[in-house]
Amino acid sequence: MLDEQLAALEKLGKSELGDRWAKLTGQPAPNVSAALLRLAVGYEMQARTLGKLSRNTRKTLDAGTSGKAATRGIRPGMRLAREHGGKVHVVTIGDAGEIIWNSRQWNSLSEVARAITGTRWSGPAFFGLRQKAKAA
Hints:
The protein has two domains: 2-52; 79-126, no CATH class. Helices cover 45% and strands 14% of the residues. It is built from six helices and four strands. The chain has a four-stranded antiparallel beta sheet with strand order 1-2-3-4, covered by helices on one side. The protein starts with a helix and ends in a 10-residue tail after the last helix.
């Protein structure tokens, strides 16, 4: 059934796609080409039927397109510990890649590092997931 619905998108014009987008998301359609809007509507339809991508998968896909290397070594169930200010802080990586510290879910390791230190930090660097640059 989903396959048929996705195939039917090929026959829709831009205004019909915009209507479909608004119905799916509750937001007005972005001002993009019909081809791009078709892809976006198709993604939303699939996400609602099959479920959205996990945080780890989205991060991996984003890293592949941004030119940046993804943080390596983070796996579900992993615990990251760092001592700061005389206290040991433990972050747990959940099954879907969510970051949990102090019984709260966070968007990134950098947010956690900032909450711990009060200053901006690279979360992966703070928790020892990235090596320091070598001096030249």
